[in-house]
Amino acid sequence: MKLSADYVKRILPKSRSSKTSWDPEHREEKNPAREQCQVTAFFLNKILWWDVYAEKITLESKYTEEDFIRQINQKEKNKTLSFFVGTVKIGENRRGYHYFNKDAENIPIRLCEGQFIYDKILARGKEKLLDQGKIDIILDINPEIKKRLEILEANFQKEIEISFR
């Protein structure tokens, strides 16, 4: 079955869950796109052959000491926490990578841009194309990303089945 891009865009948000999130413990129902950009971009590359791009972004920090204490891993005592690929310190702006796609006409498709609804984007870096070789390496060296992608694919398949009932 050939799926249209519009159909995929409509079904995909229903397929996301805490198990597909980069930060499952802090996934918010009011912001379901949060921490879903990498797995979403990889999924769209796989199903629609859209190119994957990564860009460095800087977000205005809204982290307080209380947020930090709630999120910090017990093994880390250096007052930093993971934020997608980068790190953040209390009171400093958050920096990391944001993933998105471009379609066959080279039009940016940013299905997870909504995750920044409560953030102020201060800067966007130069976008970089991730070729299939880089994507394969990322999936090979990070089984957690591969697992999240597989979960998203399975959830998407279930949503397709539901939509045809």
Shape: globular
Radius of gyration (Å): 16 Å
Percentage of residues assigned to helices:
25-40%
Quick one: how many beta strands?
7
- What is the domain total for the residues? 1
> How much β-strand is present in the residues?
15-25%
Largest sheet, strands/sense/barrel: 5 strands, antiparallel
Q: Order of helices and strands, N to C?
A: HHEHEEEEEEHH
Distance between the termini: 16 Å
Class from secondary-structure proportions: alpha+beta
For this structure, the quaternary state is single chain
**Would you tell me the overall average pLDDT?**
82
Describe the structure.
- This protein has 5 helices and 7 strands.
- Helix 1 crosses helix 5 (143-163), helix 2 (37-48) packs across helix 5 (143-163) and helix 4 packs across helix 5 (143-163).
- A hairpin with a 5-residue loop joins strand 4 and strand 5 (108-109).
- It is α+β, with helices and mostly antiparallel strands.
- The chain is globular and about 50 Å long.
- Strands 1, 4, 5, 6 and 7 form a 5-stranded antiparallel sheet that branches. Strands 2-3 form a two-stranded antiparallel ribbon.
- The model is unreliable at 72-88 (pLDDT under 50).
- The protein has helices at residues 5-15, 37-48, 65-71, 132-141, 143-163, and strands at residues 51-59, 80-83, 86-89, 94-102, 108-109, 121-124, 128-130.
- It has one domain.
Strand-helix topology:
Blueprint: H1 5-15, H2 37-48, E1 51-59, H3 65-71, E2 80-83, E3 86-89, E4 94-102, E5 108-109, E6 121-124, E7 128-130, H4 132-141, H5 143-163
Antiparallel strand pairs: 1-4, 1-6, 1-7, 2-3, 4-5
Helix pairs in contact: 1-5, 2-5, 4-5
